[in-house]
Structures
1.
Amino acid sequence: MNIAYFISSHGFGHASRASAIMEALSACDPQIHFDIFTGTPEWLFRDAGLTNFTYYPGAVDVGLVQLNPMDHDLPQSVINIRNYLDSIPERSDTLAAELQSLKTDLVVCDISPLGIITGKKAGLPTFLFENFTWDWLYELYIPQCPEFQELNNRLREIFVQADFRMQSEPLCDPDREADILIPPVSRRPHHSAAEFRKSLAIPDDHRIGLISMGGIPENLDFAVESSIPDNVTLLLPGTFEKTERYGNKILLPHHSGYYHPDMVHAADFIIGKAGYSTIAEVCAAGAAYGFISRENFRESDVTADFLRKRPNTLEIAQSRFEAFTLDEEIGKLLELGKTAPQPVNGSDIAAEFILKKGN
């Protein structure tokens, strides 16, 4: 079976959950080959352990133009989205012919409108995997930028064309006509917590904390000089050039060679942006989570409500995080401790659904 996967490169959440589903599909049928169309770096899929794919780099989605992990540029986003939508008719013609030459059997989109139109033009079963679609997210910005209304009308016409709609928790916009509701989808760790601890020579009597800001590199220099408990080793993946120690902090490049799910599963607590893939991996690991909600980002309200229902989460104000005066919050997270991990990985349910409906 040949599966074409069109993946938004807005952050790493879409590619992370797509990787998890591809891993589950491969476990069901090792002969599956994936043709991955995305602007997300190829190394993310390699790091996930995928080998049975061909990578086609390019922007198949826009999302929002990010200034940093927490802020975005709405006027430039409008320009980029309109140009992208205008390009879809011509690009999808070319890509549909390419899929036919590749003998593609089905198309999965997370959450690329271009992929949906391409799959339909190629006459292939087309799956949409989402916990929100862009038209829902952009509604928040219509009062500031009325141009989003026209863009949303165009986007809705595309998203409804998917043959199968797979919705995943934490779900932003429930659709009663969706085909299936799936628990959070997360990548599986490659190493045990003990193996990870050993790889970074973290003392056995230290608790492990992780700062996770998602797929957009964050400058965490402000956290380096901060005070944290003596018995905690804090992992700081950011814009650092190399892996090095600074007291009981370990500074890591954004692509450090240490697999993010390994870090999450080894950590006693995580502090960071409440993005989909981090939430899903925290649920899978059962770690305590100090989450930061993005202001003026509609998904954040939903994810915050979802996280507040977990017994070991703590909401952290963005201003507190940026000042990095978090001794009190770290103490609370250590008290909360780990909970039982999520019993079912949504990736397995998604893979089973795709194979059942795609054959």
Note: The mean pLDDT is 94.
2.
Amino acid sequence: MRLFDLSGRSAIVTGAGRGIGRSIALGLAEAGCNLALCSRTPRELEEVAAAARGFGVDARAFPCDVTRPEEIQQAVEAAAEHFTRIDILVNNAGLTVKKPAEDYTPEDWRQIIDVNLTGVFLMAQAVGRQMIHQGDGRIINISSIAAETAITGSVAYCASKGGVKMVTRVLAAEWADRGIRVNAIAPAYTETPLVKAITDSRAGFADAIRQRTPLKRLGLPEEMVGAAIFLAADASSYVTGETIMVDGGWTAFGF
């Protein structure tokens, strides 16, 4: 058994146009996985698809907004028809709004919860139905250190990622006897466009993160790839309902 070989398998990756989603998509392609790439940015998806095809796999863009159930269903059905099956889902799409809790608007709250939590569930549900029909599959949700520890100025983000952790556990428990494994990856602050926008707007914030992190730096998007391949491959065949921290020691750190 080739524990880390994904040759011939097919994956849907959401938020695949940039950041962690892009890196995981290309990492899966390098491991031999065909790709259905989803996000609201078709141009970026086409660029990632072209790069993925350089590894000799089939990669197609299926633009969709994860807050719209009808677009999710259309994308999942199109991907399943094109690839005949969906072996892997990487639920990566996400966003945040940084502001004090007392200043959050209902619109801020709804937007973050809709994308980060409801969108994760709706995509997992749609792909999960396909995997139940197949009798196997692997779902990988991108969580965060915010599911484990309070991040000030991020009340909705923390709530959404805490929810992702529990959605991961419940789906893992419900679908284990259907041959479906559901796990999560929890990064710390990672050098993505989303995090760069935050660090650029707040003087000293990046330095504070480095000082708080035992490895004294932010993560890189490509450093999430190893955990994703492990969870997608046969190497993790007895792992479900778990969250792997990829956080430079952030959650292990005490005083």
Note: Residues 68 and 131 are 21 Å apart (CA to CA).
